[in-house]
Amino acid sequence: MAIDRESDYKKGIGNNLSNIGIVYKNLGDYQKALSYYERALAIRREIGDKKGEGADLGNIGVVYANLGDYQKALSYYERSLAIGQGIGVPTGRQRANMADVWLKMGKIEKAEATLVKVNDPIRLGTLNLIKKNYPKAIEYFKKSLQRNLQSRNADFLFADYAGLGQGYEGQRDYSRAIENYEKAMAMVEQQRETLGQQEKSRFFVAEVMNFKRIGPYEGLVRAFQHKQNLPQAFFMRKISRPVCSQKPWLADTALWSRSCPPIWLSRSKAIPPKSEACANRWRRFSGTKPWTAIMKRN
To answer: Which residues contact 250 (CB under 8 A, 6 or more apart)?
Structure first.
């Protein structure tokens, strides 16, 4: 940013501010994301960058949608859409975002009319999950997965696996649900490895393509309960509360989801997380990290 400021290249400054906003949005820090998006938006308007203005209006709408303020989100999406139409750029993203909000508001038919035109398999899969058409949902998520396994886009892969987990759970195929929830969890854990403690906890707050990052952990609880695997269900139930302020160390226990049996949790006050005893147990179990073992099955 310093180079851009020295050259007074304000468009570059706006781009950088917007990119920082995206990072904070992905981390689940929505207030910081809004701050950067709004600063970027002010610069776009100052220099007359209509395309950038439309993009940042859409970014702000995404934040408000994730915060649950759907009317404000729609207001920003509509302004972004109007700018896109005015300058003749593709507006599929704005329409898809608006459809996401309508789904959350329960306006299924209105959302479906738009999503069919946008033809995004992840969003169509989500639509069919809501409609409880699980075979169709699975079909869309598999189609998306084939494409995203090539691009290795972590967020899209997470959404594919989370969606497949929900689809199979809806069909009561709990073994396949567990398999896909574990893969979604693995995507989250791979991303969390490089984050600080506070960022790790907040990371679960963020939504990815309308799927909360905590969702696969909660899905595993339900699936293990249905399979009568109560010890594993108990363990997953414990680690699905990563933002618990009274026990912030729970944010890290997902990293050890197969290393320490439930009895370890009952003694957690005596044995701190990631203790040598726990680490030794894990090494004897498989010799690698749990999410690494899961992803090797792809």
So the answer is: 238, 239, 241, 242, 244
Q: Please check whether residue 160 is in contact with residue 152, taking contact to mean a CB–CB distance below 8 angstroms.
A: no
Average pLDDT, the chain: 80
The pLDDT of 166-172, averaged and rounded, is 97
Reported as a single tens digit per residue, the pLDDT across 226-265 is 887 666 665 666 655 544 333 333 333 333 333 333 322 3
pTM, 2 dp: 0.77
Report yes or no on 45 lying in a domain.
yes
CA atoms within a 13 Å half-sphere pointing along the CA-CB vector of 292: 8
Q: Could you tell me if 90 and 179 lie in one domain?
A: no
* 124 part of a folded domain: no
pLDDT value, residue 182: 92
Q: How many domains does the chain have?
A: 2
Q: Which of 201, 158, 211 is nearest to 183 (CA)?
A: 158
Give the Cα separation of 247 and 9 in Å (integer): 46
Domain range holding 195? Answer: 172-298
Contacts of 276 (CB under 8 A, 6+ apart): none
pLDDT, tens digit (0-9, with 9 covering 90-100), for 52-85:
999 999 999 999 999 999 999 999 999 999 999 9
Instruction: Report in angstroms the alpha-carbon separations of 105 from 71, 101, 128, 206, 224.
Output: 10, 6, 16, 19, 30
Q: Per-residue confidence at 145, pLDDT binned at 50, 70, 90?
A: very high
